[in-house]
Design brief:
By secondary structure, the chain is of the alpha+beta class. It has helices at about 20-30, 40-45, 55-75, 100-115, 175-180, 250-260, 270-280, 300-310, 345-350, and strands at about 1-5, 15-20, 85-90, 95-100, 120-125, 130, 140-145, 155-165, 185-195, 200-205, 210-215, 220-225, 235, 265, 285, 295-300, 315-320, 335, 340. The strands form 5 sheets. An 8-stranded mixed sheet has the order 6-5-7-8-9-10-11-12, with helices on both faces. Strands 14-13-15-19-17 form a 5-stranded mixed sheet, sandwiched between helices. It is globular and about 55 Å long. The protein binds 2,6-di-O-phosphono-beta-D-fructofuranose.
Amino acid sequence: MHSVRLKAGPNLTIPVQTPFSMTNFMEASRIALPIGTALDRFIKNNQDQFQYATGELSQLLRDIALASKVVNREINKAGLIDIMGAMGSQNSGGEQQQKLDVLANIRFTRALTKGGEACALISEESESYLDLNNQGNYVIAIDPLDGSSNIDVNVSIGTIFSVYHRKSEVGQPIQEADILQYGSEQVAAGYILYGSSTMLVYTTGHGVNGFTYESTLGEYVLSHLNMRMPEDGVIYSINEGSANSFSPAVKSYLEFCKDENYTARYIGSLVADFHRNLLKGGIYIYPATAKNPNGKLRLMYECNALAYLAEQAGGKATDGKNRILDIKPKDLHQRTAFYVGSKNMVEKAESFI
Ligand code: FDP
């Protein structure tokens, strides 16, 4: 033990005992500790699992990761500069656009345009799809910033993305068949959760892996290898404020949850509610309501990606009856009821519908 003297005021010094050997040991272990596998290396090491031109998908994922780092930086500055609050404009669904929604849309669009791998971009923020580059092989559907109502109050928000391989030949104009694909045709999907830490979670159809953003390194580092959603759980997430307009079946399922003493958790940010249920087990439900008779959530850039991730992690996703990934989209901004989470919980909920 060493003793050092700290100045506590103009004339006062306080002796402090510092365990130097312990400090040195901790510092040495920190330095010796491996950082872990960075996202780039992980993508590269697993390229051969992917059926198409592997380098392109890797580049796409890197573009998304890079844009998410910029968005993450802006979100972290949200209280300091004028990027909170409404833009005064509306998105494709007639909802108020927040400044950060618009900013995130610009960042992801720019990254995907410059990357060159994407030929078209479907976004919650744009009425029709964006024709990016006829040479690109991939169609991306994205909700650049999900959970808008939580932006101004420092609560977790997210980005959700789906990746499809185009059907038409490269160089030809984009066709409707390139855009309106089944969720089951996704070749990759994922989300970024801007929470107490920022995480990127994705799948290319070979399980689900999660990466935590190490801000001092500017890298996503593998933190959750081969994520599995528990088959059962005790958490149910639903906006019960709308319960008056739920169907009798949904109401009875909620009674069942209460009889079972389940725990209610509803952040109101789909990505955050999904992520918690992925780790702990649980069910997220957004059913049809009087206000949203077809459900509120968007099939193409919210539900499909999460349904793919859920299934890849051993969970389940339906609209109450049908597998989400088997719903044929007729419209870019189509809505659906959404039941997603632990397999047994989703099946139990379905038995009420
Ligand atoms: P938001 O409208 O705030 O963007 O995707 C839409 C979404 O959030 C989900 O993230 C969230 O789970 C849900 O809507 C919340 O809707 P309610 O406020 O109707 O519960």
